Amino acid sequence: MHWRAKGVLQKVLGHVPGGEQAHYLLQRRFGGLRGFRREFDVKMDDWRLMVGHLRDVGRPIAGARLFEVGSGWYPTFPFACYLGGARQVVTVDLNRHIRPALVRNCAANLARYTALIAEACGIPESDVRQRQQGLLARLERGDDVGVASEGVVVYEAPADAARTRLDGQQVDCVFSNSVLEHVLPEAIDGIYREAMRILAPGGIMFHSVNCGDHYAYVDGSINQLNYLQYSDREWRRWDNAFLYQNRMRAYEFVERAAAAGFDIVLNTECAREKRLAELASMQVHPQFAHIPPERLCVTSIDFIGRKPGTVSA
């Protein structure tokens, strides 16, 4: 599908009655929700990488109090953390996207990952398997996410990650996966400030950001730097409520976190030769001309910011 056509279609659906349901059905029939298993496997690989990063900085999943920004269509990360022994996982979203059928499918597919979760979290696989079987059984009898996860996963939507109802200093880790690239820049600053408030001293904030042009996933004629050819005014023709892209570069997410007071302890920013070559072959809009090519071309980043202070027991 041509990327401009998708942009226009999504823009129209964002302004008509029933547009959200129509968008969901199109995603199930033609989009990212069509191949659930493949999409789920990608998410679980992302979860594995996140857990490895958290472990490296001294924050294991078992016993942790977690807060997820952006729940999405189904709670892969919260459920995997629950199986891994998390104490609590609060997950919030601006819109209530999750669907019972997708949630059940998510829980069922986790049966293929009990060994991985056990190894990543340092707990017996028998414990993970028992939780997974119980989770699925409760979901199949009609329980909601909270009851099915024995009160560990708390799903709140609509909810604003920049204005939570949580008490201060009550969370060990705030995280997101492929979310911040879809958030208004000023709202990102608000999310960082709220993370600083709710994190316990020494707590960490982990974000994995996919900051390339997402239209490249549906149109093979363009690459992930395509949207850098357009001004903000031009880009608004195709930006829309279902696939808003802020076009922030990877380093900007990290710099804003540092400005919010976080100590950056992980930054995977890396200029890849393929992206540098793609950038050199295209006409970048002047509004991006001040950014060095080795920073402009980066389309993904993982980073961790730590709240200053001593980690409490």
From TrEMBL:
Q: Name one GO biological process term.
A: methylation
Question: Looking at the Swiss-Prot or TrEMBL record, what is one Pfam family this protein matches?
Answer: Methyltransf_11
| Residue stretches in coiled coil | none
**What keywords are annotated for this sequence in UniProt?**
Methyltransferase, Transferase
Tell me where in this chain the Methyltransferase type domain is found. Answer: 158-206
Q: Which GO terms describe its molecular function?
A: methyltransferase activity
Record-given protein name? Class I SAM-dependent methyltransferase
